[in-house]
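Subject: sequence -> structure tokens, single chain

Hey, anyone have a minute? Need the predicted structure for the following. Not urgent.
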Amino acid sequence: MTNELISPLSGLRRLIETNQMEASDVDFINDKPYVWSPHNKIINVTPGPAFGSELVTQFTSTQTRGMRGPGVAKYFATVREEYGKIVGLQEGGKALFYTGSGTSATEAAAGSCRTPDEVNSDKKVIVTLEIGCFSNAMGNCVENLGRGVIRLEGELGEDLPYAKCREVLEKDTEHNIKMVMAPHNETGAGVTTNPRKLRDLLDELNHPALLVIDGISSIGCMPCSMKEMGIDMLIGCSQKGIMGTPSIGMITLSPKALQKIQESEQQMKEAGLKKGQHYLNLGKMIEAMDTHGLHIETPSNYSQFAVALDSIAIEGIDRVCKRHKECSEIYRAAVQAAGFELVAKELGTASNAVTAIKAPDGHGEKDILQVLMIMYYKHAVEAAAIPGYPDMGWRLCATGGIQPQHALMASIAFLKAAEEAGLPIDSDKGIAAASKRYGELVQYHRPLPGIDTYGR
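Reply:
Had a minute. Here:
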């Protein structure tokens, strides 16, 4: 293949000379008519790593701070304190960052508060409320740590099984249960819960268990305040609503949680027992932060995270949450008008971060993947299926820097892809509904002072 219009000095010459401009290694598009795209920009509406903030993209050339340099402990502490404000951390509480993701923070929480009476015992010490793939993973985490767990499973698309939780806690008259763990936003099913209901239940029964909430896909996407919801441990990550890149698993602890952790650490020490974890041991991390303010091991990229927090501060957390709601309303308008059903069974619990959509009857995994492939390769939109349920459907997400413009484009891409894949829906009706809702929601934009439209 030759093209005299391409300069011999161009780096693109190698693509031609090595025959890389021929058939793709992706079988799906080899039999499709195609055009060459001048760029590879993809609209990412997967749950995470999320579509980033343009401000984060522009300003993340900030140099990464070293681990032991002068003033770094104070800098790290300040970033953690600023994050604590985002999540409404109670006075006297503490924010801890683990190098990892939400999974690392979940494991740190699930392994905490061990006491000697657990050793060589079948005591049930943790309750997990599970309504989808990711809350199921929370229960798996507890089990894999070898701790006694009562797993309360609800129906996919429904709210938390509060009645089952009440029954378990009422029977726990000796207060063996140390933690109740649940998702604020079930990323797999697109359902948002109300942790305040669990807090009120614990208070009503005068039960001392800590309330541990997975806020991985809710923090930075919807209101999530530890004070207002009565949360003792809140788990988060850097690559979803915070709009950063993967690298940090955050866990914020109430004063009550700090006390319980320290008491259990002391009991284990006095009994001469191992803590069960090394790096992910909350007691060790708290001790490190209290003594020298630094991590046990190599820290994650605080500088990039700080830019993400500043981006949220500039936009305003209330506006950030409202923006996610607006994008999700566009998705819902599109898919419901086209004839799809949501996985969430009640509109009141439908998530403003993750819109989970059921595939029509008779259309399973093959068609679901076909729609995703068409979206990606034809419309440059990356969406996701529903994990753990291969025949269930899709997820269109509003986590991160998604704007209503992106949500409208993603809605059109989804509906046209579904139509091309042969699904029995009315794409034109869905697109009209999405366009109408977009017109009602979209607002004028102003560039930041000192920054032009090219980010200079």
